[in-house]
Amino acid sequence: MSVAFSDAARSELERIRSRYPDREAAILPALHLAQREFGYVSDEAIVYLADLLGFAPARIEGVATFYTMYNRKPVGKYHVQICRNISCSLLGAEHLIEHVSKKLGVRPGETTPDGKFTLTAVECLGSCGTAPVMQVNDDYHESLTEEKIDALLDRLP
Amino acid sequence: METVLTTHFANEQYRHADTYLQFGGYEALRKALAGPRERIVDEVKKANLRGRGGAGFPAGVKWGFLPKDLSRPRVLVINADEGEPGTFKDRQIMGKAPHLLLEGIAIASYAMSIHLSYIYIRGEFIREARIVEEAVAEAYARGFFGKNILGSGFDLEVSVHRGAGAYICGEETSLINSLEGKRGWPRIKPPFPASVGAFGLPTIVNNVETIADVPWIVTHGGEKFAALGVEKNGGTRLIGVSGPVNRPGVYELPAGVLLREIIYTHAGGLKDGRQLKAVIPGGSSTPVLRPDEIDVTYDIESMAKIGTMAGSGGVIVIPEGTCMVRALHVLMNFYAHESCGQCTPCREGTGWLSKIVGRIENGQGREGDLELVLDVCDNMMGRTICPLADAAVMPAQSFLWKFRDEFEYHIKVQKCPFGNKF
Question: What is the pTM assigned to this prediction?
Answer without folding.
Answer: 0.97
